[in-house]
Amino acid sequence: MGQLQGKCLIIQQKLKSSMTILQIDFFYFLEKLLLIGGVITFSLVIAMYTTYAERKVAAVLQDRLGPNRAGPFGLLQPLADGLKLFFKEEIIPLTSNKLLFVIGPALAMITAMLTSAVIPWGSTVNIFGRNVSLQIADVNIGILYVFGVVSLGVYGIMIGGWSSNNKFSLIAAVRGASQIISYELAMGLSLIALLMMTGSLSLKTIVEQQMSGGWGGFLGWNVLYQPLGFLIFLICVFAECNRTPFDLPEAENELNFGYHQEYSSMKLGFYLFAEYINMFISSAIVSTLFFGGYDIPFVNEATLAHTLGGNVVALLGVAALLAKIVFFLFFFMWVRWTIPRFRYDQLMDLGWKKLIPLALANMLITAIVILWLNK
Amino acid sequence: MSIIEILFWFLTALALFGALMVVFSKNPVHSVLWLISVFFSISGHYILMNAQFLAIVNMIVYAGAIMVLFLFVIMLMNMNTESEPQKSKWLRIAASLSGGSLMLVLVAALKDTNGKVTGVFKVEGNIGLIKNLGQVLFTDYVLPFEISSVLFLSAMVGAVLLGKKETNSIIS
To answer: Which residues of chain A fall below pLDDT 70?
Structure first.
C-alpha cells in the first residue's frame, strides 16, 4: 500500500513538475501575441495606404490629380483595389509547377513581415502594472536576424519566377536574386562600421545609445557619425526592395512584366503588396539604425516623462518613429518618380565596383578613428 | 517533457523528414527547397544550444547564399526526369555500395559515443553567444581564423580568374 502511495506521489510530483515547466507566463504570452497581431495589422494597413500615397505622390510630381473618386480624396482607393484583386479570376498556368506557384507569393509575404519582429517600435508602456516592451523580440543578434531574413527574401522571387514556367519570369527571377545577393554585401559592410561604433547587435541597445546623445538625443543619431555608411545602406535598401532606380526584375520594356508575369488575382496582389511592406520595414530599419528610432529629437524623454507620464512619452516615441518612417516612404516614392531605371550592367557595376570598395574604405576609416580616439 | 524537449523532438523530426525528402523528391528544385528546411531546423537546434550566432550565420550563409546558388544552377539547367539520362546499373550499384559503407562507418563511429548525455536538452553555456565566440576566435584561434580567411580570398580570386574572359588569347 505504502509503495503504491509512494508511486502515486512520485507521479503526482512528476505531473506537477511537468506542469510548471509547461506553464508559460500566460500574460506574457498574450501580450506578445497581441503585439505580433498589432504589428502585422499595422504593417498591412500602412502598406495599403502606401500604395495610395505612391499614386498621389506620383500624381503631384507629374502634375496630375491621382485617385480621387473612391471616398473623400480617393481615400478608399486601396480598399477598392484590394477588393478588385480578390474578386478577379485566378489563373494558374497549365505548365507551371502548381505547388511552388502558390508557395511563391506566400513566401514573399512571410519574409516581408518577418523582419518586424526585432524592430523596437517604442520604449515600454505600463498597462495595468505590467511593463510591456513595444518590441516583439529583443534578441542580441537583431541586425544579423535582419540580414538572415533579407537573404531569404530571394526565395519568393525565385520560386515564383521559376514555377511560372515562363522565360521572362525566369530571367527576371535570376536578375532579382543576383541583384539582392550583390547588394547584400555592400549593405553588410556599411553596417559593420556602424556596429564598430555601437558595439552591439541588438537594435534596442542601438536606439538607446542614440537617445543618450546631446540635444535630447539628436546629437547621438548615427547618421551624424556615419553619413557615408548611411548613404551606402540607403542605396542598398533601394536595391533590396527592387525599387526604382533598381527595379530591374520588373523592367517592363525588357521583361514584359517581370517575375510575377503569370500571376493574377490576389497572388499578384501579394507580390505587389510585399514590395510595399518591404519598403515600410526597410524605412523602419533605416530610422532605427541611423535616425534614433523612437527618439524624439531635441526632447529629453526622461524629463518629459515626469510631466506627461511614461505611457504618453512612449506613444509619442512611436509617433516620432512613424514620422521618420513616413519620411523615408516618401523618399522612396520621390526617387521612383525622379530617377530613371539603371541598366543591368550599370547596376552590377555600381554594386560591386563602387559601393563595396566605398563601404570597405568607410569601415577602415571608422576603425582608425575609433582606435585613435580610444588611445 | 519540458518545452525545450518538445522543441528538440519537433526540430529533430522536421530535420529528418526534410533530409529524407531531399533524397526522395523526384524534382531537384523540390530537393533544394527541402534542404533549406533542413538548414532551418538545424538552426533551431543551434538556438536550443544557445548558439545564436551560429544559428543565424547558418541561415545567412547556407539558406540565404549557398542554396540560392544551388537553386540558380538547377533552375537554369532545367533538369527533369524525362531529359535526364538514366545512369547505368553498375554505377547505381557502386553508388549504393559506397553510400552504404559511409553509413556503416558513421554508425560504427557513433555507436560508442555516450548517447545518454542529456546536455543537449539544456540551454546552457555561453560560448555560442557572439561576444564570447568573437573573443575566442580572435585570441585563441586567431591564426587558424586568419589562415582560413586567406584561403577564402584565394578561392575568390580563383573564381574571378576563371570567370574572366580571356580577350588576349582570342586576339593573338
So the answer is: 1-24
Cα(A228)–Cα(A225) distance, rounded to whole angstroms? 9
Which ipTM did the prediction report?
0.77
In one-letter notation, the amino acid at residue A40 is I
Q: Is residue A276 a contact partner of residue A45, using CB atoms and an 8 Å limit?
A: no
Cβ distance of A152 and B1 shorter than 8 Å: no
What is the spatial distance between Cα B92 and Cα A317, in angstroms, rounded to a whole number? 65
Grouping H, G, I as helix, E, B as strand and the rest as coil, residue A125 is strand
Q: How far is CA B5 from the centre of its chain?
A: 24
How far is A124 from A135, CA to CA, in rounded Å? 9
How many CB atoms sit inside 10 A of residue A95's CB?
9
Radius of gyration of chain A (CA): 24
Cβ neighbours, 10 Å, residue B68: 21
3-state secondary structure B17-69: HHHHHHHHCCCHHHHHHHHHHHHHHHHHHHHHCCCHHHHHHHHHHHHHHHHHH
Percent of residues, chain B, with pLDDT higher than 90: 25
C-alpha cell at position A134: 513595444
pLDDT of residue B169: 59
Q: Which helix (H) or strand (E) holds A132?
A: strand A130-133
Amino acid at B158: G
Question: What residues of chain A lie within 8 A of the CB of B70, using their CB?
Answer: none
For A152, the closest of B29, B63, B75 (CB atoms) is B63
Predicted confidence at residue B82, as pLDDT, reads 61
Residue type, A120: P
Residues in CB range of A339: below 8 A, 6 or more apart = A244, A245
Task: Please answer yes or no on whether B52 and A139 come within 8 Å at the CB atom.
Answer: yes
